[in-house]
Structure formats: structure tokens, C-alpha cells
Write a structure and sequence with these properties.
This protein is of the alpha/beta class. It is built from 17 helices and 26 strands. Among the domains are: 167 residues, ANL, N-terminal domain (Rossmann fold); 73 residues, Roll (Luciferase, domain 3); 95 residues, GMP Synthetase, Chain A, domain 3 (2-Layer Sandwich). Strand 25, helix 16 and strand 26 form a beta-alpha-beta unit. The mean pLDDT is 95. The structure holds adenosine-5'-diphosphate.
Length: 540
């Protein structure tokens, strides 16, 4: 017997309709590529997303065709999020930090039909235009006057002229909720990038999931700043959850340096922000020496790579800001887990609470997790036993775009991460499987060794990697960028490890470098660090 409830599809167009109807005058603030601050509202975003839908109809862009964006976090990008997906096309967010060859490969693989770009990416567009034959419409996210100042790109239409002739009213199509809505490629650190193709259903369910109180806890009282780019896994789903709840949204554009982010946080009374650790480090580097304070910021989600415990304590103790450590990946829309305490932990000491809060946290309803050992056996949730982390759920991919083979093993997706899970469901990522250091048959967590290094006041950034060793297979070495004002020696840093890990886990060496290579999403590129160290030999 079936239930007797309405079979109403979960659609992205419903999110923007809801925001228009219930939060019409709630503001959307953007720092534009043009550098000024632009103010609009959910009602305006809804109207203009409908004009986009008309413009796509007029250009005869079929349902399911890909509309790519090469854009920062801003109101026009937000309008495209709803106008493209809401009207049945697929929004393909491109990562502008990729190499042009890789970007061209992705555009051709996705067969993008339209490409909308911020003017700061005009030089990239000029390089790729002739190499992307599937793209029929190049839309510059600006007005005609601004476009006229950039002669390097040809045959482009200014966005404002493209949408202007069209009505602000539009009847959204009643799509099947499993219709594809957006596409995001993994950064492809191994082999070609792979596309995760999200659906309306997965996106709306993910938005419900992340808005929950023990997750991002969104409220219409919040002013939310996603520093995480809208080209990186849909800014962790925040634009959709923002429309669902009716938050004030603050979009930072290209200015991600500490000073600009701080200014926006204070001016727009931001209560909640989200970003990767490298961006928050820039913010801390700006505010700490100047003795600045956050007047309104209450909580911030940090994820995408491991958030060092020292960063969590710095935000809490020096600024009264709660850090929510989150874990996710492109294939998970992206959120898998987030760390918040349970009622019983409220009586714990601060140190005990902190020991928990540094983990990647509890899974949220919508993602199931298990850890699996070398022989395929499910590992116990005892907080000690490591295993390969597997997930499943309605916002986890089944297979990659244009790949006929399943990405699953017995219904589970292998994340490529190694983790422990404790009896209460708190998960700790110890490594990516390819970064685990195996020494004398034992695993050493590179993340743990990196976290200790960056807790030293003389260390700005640290990456730990395994180096081949004739007896132990591999031994850890730590590659370090020093803080300029600090005279740090190798011995001092190695001594710093002594009371923090077992003796055999202490790195064999410290290698000082000027900078650590970062990938397109701000993560340390360990493959490149290994290449830098091909001629390196461990000390005897
Ligand atoms: P890519 O796989 O292309 O780097 P993703 O953004 O999808 O892009 O990266 C997902 C990976 O990032 C995860 O599998 C995990 O290794 C890492 N990651 C994400 N969040 C965290 C976190 N909080 N702690 C440690 N690693 C993390």
C-alpha cells in the first residue's frame, strides 16, 4: 500500500520560488569583479534567474544541455545557479584555477553549449575559445560597456544585454526530481578529471541536510558568507540552503585576502562563514597582529582539507568563534560529516571537548559510513582501528558523468580516505589512502604530523610525506614553510614532536622550503611536493 501524500518533485526552482515569496527583500551582497559592493535581494535574483531561463529558451538550448560558468562568488553567478538548473539545463561550474589545457579538456568532455564568464577570466577565455567547438554562446558576465573594454575576447554577448529583453515571469518546468541539475569535475590529481552529475533531488536533500541545527544551523536571522568558491562543489551547497532558509547572503567575489574578507565580515555583520583552512589562515594572519575582533561572527565551517587543531583553538580562544570542522568531497555534493558536540559532552572539560572537535565529525542523516580493512572486512567503530572510508546515500554519486561503469562496490562509494570511527560515530580522517605513510608495517598519519608542525609558532605551513627507506619501507619527513619573523631550526621542530607522538612516528627530517605548491582548490599538492624531492635522501 502506498502513502497518500502528494508526489511533489524536489526541484531547485522551488527553492528560488520560496525565497522570492517569503524572503523577497532579504539582501544578497556581492563584492564585484569591478571591485564595488553590489546589493540586491532574493526577489531580484529570482526575477533575473527567470530572465536567464527565457534567454536559454530563446537560444534554443535544450533541456539537459550544459551551461558552464567561469565565475567568482557573486550575484550573477547565483542567478545562473537557479536560472540554468531551474529551467532544466545543467549548470557546469568550471574551476578557473585549473591549467587551460585541463579546462579545455573538461569543457570538451562536458560538451558545454554556453559558457558564462567573469571579466577577470577574459584572458583565459581568449586562450580557449578556438579550442572549444561545442560552445555556441560566450556570455560575458557584465554590461555592454564593460565588455567593450576587453577586445581580447570575440563573439561574446554581455550578460546584461542577453537577459534584459526577457520577462521577469517564467513558469518553471515540472521536471522529474532525478533530472540532472549541475555538474562539477574533481580536480583530477590522478588521471583525467571526473564529473559528478548532481540531480535536483540530491541537491535539495543535501540543502535540507546542511541546514540542520547540528550541521550549518542556518536561520533567516543569519548573514552567511561562503568564501568557499561557487565553482567548488556548489560552494558546499550553501547557495541552495540559503534560498531554502532565506538567509542574507554575502558573496566575496575575487577578493579572498584576509583584509578584504575581514572588511566584508564586519560591514555586512556576517554571523556564519565557510571556507578551506588556507583562506582562514590568511584571515587569522590579518586580524591577529592588528588585535582586530569579530563583532558578529559566531561560527565558521572549515573543511576541504584537515583543519589544524591550532586554528580551531585560535578562533575559539582569541575570537570567540566556533569552528565546525567538516569533511566532504565532490562525489558527495559535498558534505559527509561535520563536528558538533552532543548533550553528554557539555559536562566535559574544555580539553576533552577540543579533542573531539578536531575530528571530521559525525555523519549527517543522508550519508552512511563504514570503514573497511585490507581484506575487505568491515572494521569496528572503536576510534582506534583504521580503514578505508566508504559512504552511501541519496547525495553520493553512483557513477561518473559519461562513464558507463558503476563507481560503487557493493553499493558503497570508496572515498579514497583512511579514517577511524568511534563508538559514537565521530570520524577522524587520518589520510588520503595515497598519502598514508607506512613505516615498519605500521601506519603513520601525515595529517597528525602536519597538525603538530603548524601548532609551532615558527611554522606557517607544513606538509608531511613518506620517503622510501631501505628498512622501514617509508619514513615521514616534514616539509615546512617558516614564518619569516621566526628563527626556527630543524632540531627545535623535531623536539617539538617529542611529547606529542610515539618516538617512531617522529619525522626523520625537516625540509625548509619557500612555498608549498597548492592545487586548484587550495589544497597542498603532495604529488608536486614528491616531485620536488625526487633527489632527496633521508639522513642516515
Ligand atoms: P579533490 O578530490 O579533487 O581534491 P574534493 O574537494 O572533492 O576534491 O576533495 C575531497 C577530499 O578532500 C576528501 O576525499 C579528503 O581527502 C579531503 N578532505 C576534505 N575535507 C577534509 C577534512 N576536513 N579533513 C581532511 N581531509 C579532507
Amino acid at each position: 500500500m502506498f502513502g497518500l501524500m502528494q508526489k511533489h518533485s524536489l526541484l531547485i526552482s522551488d527553492l528560488i520560488e520560496f525565497a522570492q515569496l517569503n524572503h523577497a527583500d532579504t539582501e544578497i551582497i556581492s563584492r564585484r569583479v569591478e571591485k564595488d559592493i553590489h546589493r540586491t535581494t532574493w526577489a531580484q535574483v529570482a526575477h533575473r534567474s527567470k530572465q536567464i531561463a527565457h534567454a536559454l529558451d530563446a537560444a534554443a538550448v535544450a533541456t539537459g544541455e550544459r551551461v558552464a560558468t567561469l565565475a567568482w562568488n557573486g550575484y550573477r553567478h547565483l542567478e545562473l545557479y537557479f536560472g540554468v538548473s531551474g529551467s532544466g539545463r545543467v549548470l557546469h561550474t568550471l574551476n578557473p584555477r585549473l591549467h587551460v589545457d585541463q579546462m579545455t579538456w573538461i569543457i570538451n568532455h562536458a560538451e558545454d553549449h554556453v559558457l558564462c564568464f567573469d571579466m577577470s577570466f577574459a584572458p583565459i577565455v581568449a586562450q580557449i575559445q578556438s579550442r572549444c567547438p561545442t560552445v555556441k554562446h560566450w556570455i560575458a558576465l557584465c554590461d555592454a560597456q564593460t565588455l567593450a573594454q576587453s577586445p581580447e575576447v570575440s563573439e561574446c554577448v554581455p550578460y546584461e544585454s542577453w537577459i534584459a529583453p526577457h520577462s521577469e515571469e517564467y513558469i518553471w518546468p515540472e521536471l522529474d526530481e532525478n533530472t540532472a541539475s549541475s555538474l562539477c569535475y574533481t580536480s583530477g590529481t590522478t588521471g583525467h578529471p571526473k564529473g559528478a552529475l548532481y540531480s535536483h533531488r540530491s541537491t535539495v536533500l543535501h540543502a535540507f541536510g546542511i541546514a540542520l541545527p547540528d550541521v550549518m544551523n542556518f536561520s533567516a536571522k543569519d548573514s552567511v558568507l561562503p568564501v568557499v568558491p561557487m565553482f567548488h562543489v556548489n560552494a558546499w551547497g550553501i547557495p541552495y540552503a540559503a534560498a531554502m532558509v532565506g538567509v542574507k547572503l554575502v558573496l566575496p567575489g575575487p577578493a579572498l585576502d584576509g583584509e578584504s574578507v575581514y572588511e566584508l565580515i564586519e560591514q555586512e555583520k556576517v554571523t556564519f562563514a565557510a571556507g578551506v583552512p588556507t583562506v582562514w589562515q590568511m584571515l587569522l594572519n590579518h586580524v591577529t597582529p592588528k588585535g582586530l575582533r569579530f563583532k558578529h561572527l559566531k561560527r565558521t565551517v572549515i573543511g576541504g582539507s584537515a583543519c589544524p587543531p591550532s586554528m580551531i583553538s585560535a578562533f575559539k580562544n582569541n575570537f570567540g568563534v566556533e569552528v565546525l570542522h567538516a569533511w566532504g568531497m565532490t562525489e558527495l555534493s559535498p558534505l559527509g560529516s561535520l563536528c558538533t558536540l552532543k548533550n553528554k559532552h557539555l559536562n566535559w572539560s574544555e580539553d576533552e571537548q577540543m579533542a573531539l572537535l578536531v575530528k571530521q565529525g559525525r555523519t549527517i542523516f543522508g550519508v552512511e559510513m563504514k570503514i573497511v580493512g585490507d581484506q575487505g572486512q568491515t572494521q569496528p567503530h572503536d576510534g582506534k582501528t583504521f580503514g578505508d572510508l566508504y559512504v552511501k546515500g541519496p547525495w553520493v554519486i553512483e557513477r561518473y558523468f559519461k562513464d558507463p561503469h558503476t563507481a560503487l562496490k557493493d553499493g558503497w562509494f570508496a572515498t579514497g580516505d583512511v579514517a577511524t570511527i568511534d563508538a559514537e560515530g565521530f570520524m577522524l580522517i587520518t589520510d588520503r589512502s595515497k598519502d598514508v605513510i607506512k613505516s615498519g608495517g605500521e601506519w603513520i598519519s601525515s595529517i597528525e604530523l602536519e597538525n603538530i608542525a603548524v601548532a609551532h609558532p615558527g611554522v606557517a605551513m607544513a606538509a608531511c610525506i613518506g620517503m622510501p627507506h631501505p628498512k622501514w619501507d617509508e619514513r615521514p619527513v616534514v616539509v615546512v614553510v617558516k614564518r619569516p619573523e621566526f628563527d626556527l631550526s630543524k632540531e627545535a621542530l623535531l623536539n617539538f614532536y617529542h611529547d606529542k607522538v610515539a618516538k617512531w612516528q617522529i619525522p626523520d627530517d625537516v625540509i625548509f622550503v619557500d612555498s608549498i605548491p597548492l592545487g586548484a582548490t587550495g589544497k597542498m599538492l603532495k604529488t608536486r611536493i614528491r616531485e620536488m624531492l625526487v633527489d632527496y635522501r633521508l639522513p642516515d
